[in-house]
Design brief:
813 residues, mainly beta, 22-stranded antiparallel beta barrel, 5-stranded mixed β-sheet
C-alpha cells in the first residue's frame, strides 16, 4: 500500500490489489519518469508561489451522484478535466459504450477531453490529441496525408486498396481515411480515444482503436462565440460559432466557421525562397428538428477547402555527399528542387434520427463523404528533382448505421446494430524520374534514366455489410459480464494500371520499355469474419472498478501498386503482382484494467495492462532501392504494455496530471527476405516509454475583475523505428525522441466570463523531433560512399517548430 498525504487529508491508493498494476509493472518507470518530472515540478512550484490569498476558497465536493448521467453531458477529460472553481474533478461522462456512462464506471480504455480542456490547451488537431494520450502515435506529412497508430498498429499507405487500423469518427460517421482524418477541432462536445478493437460497438470495424469526436449540437438557447488569433509567421485565424432557435421549440440551427493562414516559414536553400505554410477554411452547419419529445433529428453539412503546402521533405545525414556538397541538414531548411503544392476539398453531410421508445433508443445514422485531394511534391527532397510525384485522390463514401440501444438500469442492458458501407476510391499517381547515374540507385540501371514517367492508376469499390452488438448482464450487483460479437462481409473489386511514357528525343527510349513495362489487372475478392468480445467487470467499492476484456479485431485484405517498381520484369509478371492481394489482418486483444476516483473527487487513477497478438499483420515498407512503398503480411507480432492516467486536484487552484505508457511491440515471426529476418524487431512507431505531465492553476486576477488560468504540459517519448528491419542509424534514432516537448498557456477571463484573452506557445523548447524517416542514401551517395555503412542520408518529416501567439475570444448569449 502506498500512502499519499496531502494537507489535512490522507489518501490511500491500493496499487497492490488487482485493481491496479502491481508494483513490479511500475518498475519500468525508471530513469525515464525521473527525467521527465522536472518540468511538472517547475510548473507546480510556479503555481504554489502565487499568494494563497488570491485563490478562490476551497470547496468541499460531494460524493458521487447516483443519478444516471444525461446524454447532453457526454464530455469528459480523463486526467485533465477539473472544475476550476471548486477544485474537484468534474463528473466525466463518455459514450464509449454507445450510451452515456460515467468514466469511472466504463470498462473500456478510453481517454476523453472536454471543451474546456480543448480550449485551454489549444487542441486543434489529432496531433495535439496524440501528444496527450497513452499508446497513440500520429504522423502527418501534410494536411492531406496523416496516419494514426494505437497500441502498435502499423501506419498504412495512401493507396485505394488499403483500410485503416484506426478510424476517426465525427458524430458517429467514419471518415474516409488518410485525407479525411485530421479535422479542425472547434465546435466540440467531446473527444474520446478508445484503445483496442471496437467492432462490437461501432459501425466501422477497427482493430487498433477509434477516435470518437462529437460536435456540439444546435441549441434552442441562443449563444455563440468568436475568436481571432495572431501568432508567429503571421499566423492569422478566425473562428466563430452561432447556435439558436429557428422555428419555436421545434427547429434550431448552428453554424461554425474557421479560416486560417500562416506564411511559409521553412527555407528552400535550393530555390532561395520559403515554403510550408497554411491556407485553410472550413464551415459546418447543423439543424436540429424535434417534432416531439421522443423524436429528434440532426442534419449536418461540412465543407473544407485547403491549399496549405504539401509534404515537405527535409534531410538528415551523416555525410556530405560529393555529388551534393551543399546539402543542408538544418531543421528549418529543405533542399528540394520543387516546392510541393496541394489542394484538398472535403464535402460531407449526415443525418441522424433518434427515436426514444419503450425498448430504448433506435437510431439511424447516415453519412456521405466526398474527398478530393491533389498534391505535387519531390519524393526525395533533392535539388535535382530525381523523383517528382503528382498525385490525385478521390474518395466517395456512403455509410448507413441502424442501431438500437436499450434504456439504462435493470440487470440486462444491450445494443445491436446493422452497418453498411459503399466506398468508391480512385488513386492516380504520376512519377517522373531523372536519376543521377553517378548515385548507387541511378547507376543500378543499364542506361541513364532521363525523362521517364509512370502513370499509376488504381480504382477500388469497397462494400461492407455487418451486424454487431453486445449485451451486459449483472450477475451480482457489483459483478457484470458483457458478451458481444460482430459478423462482417466485405467485398472489394477494382483495377490497377501502370503505363510508362518517355520524353521525346532521349537516346535510350528504345531500351526503356524493357525496364519499365506496362501492365493492367482486374481483381475482386470477398472476406468474411466474426469477431467476438467478452468483458467481466467488478465494482470492488463505490469508487473502484476492475475489469478484464478479450476481443478480436479484423481488417480485410486488399491490393497495392508496388508492382510499379518491378523494374526489368515483363508485363505479365507486373500484371500478376498488381492482381495479387495481401491477406486480411487479425488481432486478439487481452486487457486488464482498473478505474479509481477518490470519494472527495480530488484524485483519479485509471490503469490498463494489455496484450495484442497479431496474425498476418499488414506492413507497408519503403524500399530504399526503388523509392516505392511495398505491402506484405507479417507472420505474427505482439504488442504488450501498461497505460496509466492520473489527475490530482491538489487544491482548489492547482491540478496536476500524469499519463504514462510502457509498450513492448515486436514482431515474433517475420521473415522479410532470405537475408532479412525481422523476428524480435520493434514494430515501427512504437515507443517503449511515453510520459505526459500537466499542471493547471487558476486564481482571481489582481487589480481587475476576472480570473486567470495558467498551465502547461510536457511530453517525453523514447526513440522509435520506421523500418521493420530496425536498421536506422543511431544519429537518426536520437532525433526521434520527444525529448521534452513543452506547451504553455495563460488565459484571462473577464468577471462576466464573456471575454477571454489567451497567450500560448507550443513546442516551447523548440525540439526538432523526426516524426518519420525513409532511407534515401542510394539516391545521394556514390557506390564508394555507400560502401561505408555509417554513411546515411534520410528524408525526414519533423514535428512543427515553436509557435507562440495571442487569442481573443468573445462569448455572447
Amino acid at each position: 500500500m502506498i500512502q499519499m498525504t496531502h494537507r489535512s487529508s490522507t489518501r490511500q491508493i491500493l496499487l497492490l490489489t488487482p485493481a491496479c498494476p502491481p508494483l513490479a509493472w511500475l518498475k519500468v518507470v525508471n530513469w525515464t519518469v525521473a527525467r521527465a518530472l522536472w518540468p511538472a515540478a517547475l510548473l507546480g512550484a510556479f503555481a504554489i508561489m502565487i499568494p494563497p490569498v488570491i485563490h478562490a476558497e476551497e470547496a468541499t465536493p460531494g460524493g458521487a451522484s447516483a443519478e444516471q448521467p444525461k446524454p447532453g453531458n457526454d464530455a469528459g477529460a480523463a486526467g485533465a478535466s477539473t472544475d476550476l472553481s471548486s477544485g474537484h474533478i468534474e463528473e466525466i461522462v463518455v459514450t464509449a459504450e454507445r450510451r452515456p456512462t460515467r468514466l469511472e464506471e466504463t470498462p473500456v480504455a478510453v481517454t476523453a477531453f472536454t471543451p474546456d480542456t480543448i480550449e485551454r490547451n489549444r487542441i486543434q488537431g489529432i496531433d495535439d490529441i496524440a501528444l496527450r494520450t497513452p499508446s497513440v502515435s500520429f504522423v502527418q506529412f501534410n494536411n492531406g496525408e496523416a496516419y494514426i497508430s494505437i497500441r502498435g498498429t502499423l501506419v498504412n499507405t495512401p493507396g485505394a486498396g488499403w483500410d485503416d487500423s484506426v478510424t476517426v469518427f465525427i458524430d458517429d460517421i467514419p471518415m474516409t481515411g488518410i485525407g479525411d482524418n485530421a479535422p479542425d477541432l472547434y465546435d466540440l462536445r467531446s473527444i474520446e480515444v478508445l484503445r483496442g478493437p471496437q467492432g462490437t460497438l461501432f459501425g466501422r470495424n477497427v482493430t487498433g482503436g477509434a477516435i470518437d469526436i462529437h460536435t456540439e449540437e444546435p441549441s434552442f438557447n441562443e449563444h455563440g462565440k468568436a475568436e481571432i488569433t495572431y501568432g508567429l509567421n503571421n499566423l492569422a485565424q478566425l473562428r466563430a460559432l452561432w447556435t439558436g432557435p429557428l422555428i419555436g421549440s421545434e427547429l434550431a440551427g448552428k453554424v461554425t466557421v474557421n479560416v486560417k493562414h500562416r506564411d511559409n516559414y521553412l527555407n528552400n536553400v535550393t530555390l532561395g525562397d520559403k515554403t510550408f505554410g497554411d491556407a485553410i477554411g472550413d464551415v459546418r452547419g447543423q439543424l436540429l428538428w424535434q417534432p416531439s419529445d421522443s423524436v429528434r433529428a440532426v442534419f449536418s453539412g461540412d465543407y473544407t477547402h485547403d491549399q496549405s503546402s504539401g509534404k515537405i521533405d527535409q534531410l538528415s545525414g551523416s555525410i556530405e555527399p560529393s555529388l551534393y556538397p551543399n546539402l543542408s541538414y538544418g531543421p528549418y531548411n529543405t533542399n528540394q528542387g520543387q516546392n510541393s503544392a496541394s489542394r484538398k476539398n472535403i464535402l460531407g453531410s449526415s443525418a441522424r434520427v433518434d427515436w426514444d421508445n419503450d425498448w430504448g433508443t433506435l437510431s439511424s445514422i447516415t453519412g456521405l463523404r466526398n474527398v478530393r485531394d491533389s498534391i505535387s511534391l519531390s519524393r526525395l527532397g533533392d535539388p535535382d528533382n530525381q523523383a517528382l510525384v503528382g498525385r490525385a485522390l478521390q474518395d466517395r463514401q456512403y455509410t448507413e448505421e441502424v442501431r438500437m440501444v436499450s434504456g439504462p438500469g435493470g440487470k440486462l442492458t444491450w445494443l445491436g446494430g446493422l452497418f453498411y458501407l459503399h466506398a468508391n476510391k480512385h488513386d492516380n499517381e504520376v512519377d517522373v524520374f531523372n536519376l543521377n547515374p553517378a548515385t548507387v540507385n541511378g547507376g543500378a540501371f543499364p542506361v541513364p534514366i532521363i525523362g521517364v514517367s509512370q502513370d499509376i492508376d488504381q480504382r477500388v469499390i469497397d462494400q461492407v455489410g455487418a451486424v454487431f452488438g453486445e449485451a451486459t448482464y449483472a450477475i451480482l450487483d457489483p459483478l457484470k459480464v458483457t458478451l458481444g460479437g460482430r459478423a462482417q462481409w466485405e467485398r472489394k473489386s477494382g483495377s490497377s494500371t501502370v503505363l510508362p511514357s518517355f520524353a521525346p528525343g532521349v537516346p535510350y527510349a528504345g531500351v526503356y520499355p524493357f525496364i519499365f513495362a506496362s501492365a493492367a489487372a482486374n481483381y475482386a475478392d470477398t472476406w468474411k469474419s466474426f469477431t467476438p468480445k467478452a468483458t467481466l467487470d467488478y465494482r470492488a467499492t463505490d469508487h473502484l472498478l476492475i475489469y478484464a476484456t478479450t476481443a478480436k479485431g479484423y481488417k480485410s485484405g486488399g491490393w497495392d501498386t508496388s508492382a510499379s517498381s518491378d523494374y526489368g520484369k515483363s508485363s505479365a509478371e507486373l500484371a500478376r503482382h498488381l492482381g495479387t492481394a495481401f491477406q486480411p489482418e487479425s488481432v486478439w486483444s487481452y486487457e486488464l484494467g482498473s478505474k479509481y476516483l477518490s470519494p472527495d473527487r480530488r484524485f483519479e487513477i485509471n490503469a490498463a495492462a494489455f496484450i495484442a497478438d497479431y496474425r498476418d499483420m499488414q506492413t507497408n515498407q519503403f524500399n530504399p532501392a526503388t523509392g516505392v512503398f511495398q505491402t506484405a503480411n507479417v507472420g505474427k507480432a505482439r504488442a504488450k504494455g501498461i497505460e496509466l492516467e492520473t489527475t490530482d486536484a491538489a487544491t482548489s487552484w492547482l491540478t496536476l496530471g500524469l499519463s504514462y505508457a510502457y509498450e513492448l511491440a515486436r514482431y515474433t515471426d517475420y521473415v522479410q527476405s532470405a537475408t532479412q529476418n525481422n523476428a524480435g524487431n520493434t514494430i515501427p512507431l512504437s515507443p517503449k516509454h511515453n510520459v505526459h505531465l500537466s499542471a493547471e492553476t487558476n486564481f482571481a486576477s489582481p487589480g481587475i475583475a476576472g480570473t486567470v488560468n495558467i498551465g502547461g504540459d510536457y511530453t517525453y517519448r523514447s526513440r522509435v523505428y520506421f523500418s521493420d528491419s530496425n536498421a536506422e542509424a543511431g544519429f537518426l534514432l536520437d532525433q526521434t525522441k520527444f525529448d521534452g516537448i513543452a506547451n504553455l498557456h495563460a488565459t484571462w477571463n473577464s468577471g462576466s466570463d464573456d471575454w477571454h484573452v489567451s497567450l500560448f506557445s507550443t513546442n516551447v523548447t523548440n525540439r526538432h523531433t523526426v516524426a518519420y524517416a525513409t532511407d534515401v542514401s542510394g539516391f545521394y551517395l556514390t557506390p564508394a560512399e555507400a560502401a561505408n555503412a555509417a554513411n546515411k542520408v534520410y528524408s525526414v518529416v519533423r514535428i512543427p517548430t515553436r509557435l507562440f501567439g495571442l487569442t481573443i475570444r468573445h462569448d455572447f448569449k
